[in-house]
Specification:
With 356 residues, the chain is of the alpha/beta class. It has 11 helices and 18 strands. A 6-stranded mixed sheet has the order 1-2-3-4-5-6, with helices on one face. A 6-stranded mixed sheet has the order 7-8-9-10-11-12. A hairpin with a 5-residue loop joins strand 13 and strand 14. It starts with a strand and ends in a 10-residue tail after the last helix. The structure holds glutathione (GSH) and fe (ii) ion (FE2). The site of fe (ii) ion has 6 residues, from loops.
């Protein structure tokens, strides 16, 4: 099986990508709106077909990327039947299974953090995606969205701790940087829900957490009740449309040499190599402006903001860095020439200077 754990720093949310190796069928658990472009890039780079996005619950701290991914990749949206969200393709009930190729997940209702929380258990019971029902040495709060400490205690004890001790637990968040735990470990060491702790102790603990509401709660809950569909139609997946660009998992917008060949006159071509390379055997793209990477901070003010920029170097690595620097400086139409001068030459496009 293909497995990736992805992180959103803003909300400390984990998103999980699971895929069946043979069929390439994939699903994402708890995608984040702002990371949809990243997630789509990874799915494409790994050659997967995103069949489903799944939610563990209606989140209060971030907006789901489910709707954006459906628009972009045609994935279907699955949510809990008891979470109250509209616009899903499938409403999951207790013990429903959701398949991806030869593999599947079982949905287990684990209410308590919210009334509609689900835990997804992998077919071989070697991994469980617990959302915010069970966190690493902790658990989700129970003070809003139908939260109920007694229900959470019973969910974790009855439906998660009943899994094999070796079953890995992948939570919906971690606020300390920990990545995963296991059922056996949490049974022993969870300070709220460990086996030696009683229901009444747990309820007392949860009544006294004293947490402020999540900062994004007022926007997040209504948006998640519509599976992350924005109020106005946004095109946030395609926020650069001046060329057929690809967005890579590394966070870089790329343009292909054949496009640049045909449209060089419409863009600012910026070559970030050193002068001896610019004038060396590989030559340079006709009309390219030389700004070595080390001087870019100083010299970028000579570039126009409105006219798109294509950055070039030998292999595409330094120019990728340059495109990030330009993006940070407020240039919003910037792409990297994929493969740099090496690919440009290999594909026999014309150069100025250079050796034959
Ligand atoms: N400071 C965070 C709080 C996030 C929060 O309350 N997270 C929920 C999960 S949606 C929780 O249960 N947190 C448990 C905890 O912080 O111990 C924010 O503003 O987003
Ligand atoms: Fe949550």
């Amino acid at each position: 099986m293909i497995f990736r754990q992805l992180f959103d720093q803003q909300s400390s949310t984990y998103t999980y990508l699971l895929a069946d190796e043979a069929s390439r069928a994939a699903l994402l658990i708890d995608p984040v709106y702002e990371q949809a472009r990243r997630d789509a890039a990874l799915v494409e780079e790994l050659g997967l077909k995103l069949a489903w996005t799944l939610e563990t619950h209606v989140h209060a701290d971030h907006i789901t990327g489910a709707w954006l991914l459906k628009e972009r990749l045609g994935s279907r949206i699955a949510v809990s039947a008891s979470g109250g969200a509209q616009g899903a393709d499938r409403l999951l009930k207790d013990l429903d299974t959701i398949g991806f190729g030869k593999r599947s997940l079982e949905a287990r209702e684990t209410p308590g953090h919210t009334a509609g929380c689900l835990t997804y258990v992998l077919d071989d019971r070697m991994a469980a995606f617990t959302g915010d029902a069970l966190l690493i040495r902790g658990c989700g709060r129970t003070d809003f969205q139908g939260g109920d400490a007694r229900a959470l205690f019973r969910s974790v004890r009855g439906r998660i701790f009943s899994l094999p001790d070796g079953c890995l637990v992948y939570p919906g968040h971690d606020y300390r940087g920990l990545a995963a735990t296991s059922v056996g470990e949490e049974k022993l060491y969870n300070p709220r829900l460990g086996e030696s702790i009683g229901e009444q102790d747990f309820v007392g603990y949860m009544q006294n957490l004293g947490l402020a509401h999540p900062k994004a709660m007022e926007q997040a809950v209504p948006a998640n009740l519509k599976c992350g569909r924005p109020l106005q139609d946004v095109s946030s997946m395609k926020d650069q449309d001046w060329a057929p660009l690809t967005y890579t998992f590394a966070g870089i917008w790329e343009v292909q040499p054949n496009w640049l060949e045909e449209h060089a006159g419409e863009v600012q071509v910026v070559d970030v190599r050193e002068p001896d390379e610019f004038n060396g055997p590989l030559g340079h793209v006709e009309g390219a402006k030389l700004i070595p990477l080390g001087n870019l901070g100083q010299e970028m003010k000579a570039l126009q903001k409105e006219k798109p920029i294509v950055v070039v170097c030998r292999s595409g690595a330094r120019s990728a860095q340059a495109s990030l620097l330009l993006g940070k400086a407020g240039f919003d139409k910037v792409a990297n020439l994929s493969g740099g001068m090496l690919r440009w030459r290999a594909q026999r496009f014309a150069v100025e200077g250079g050796a034959d």
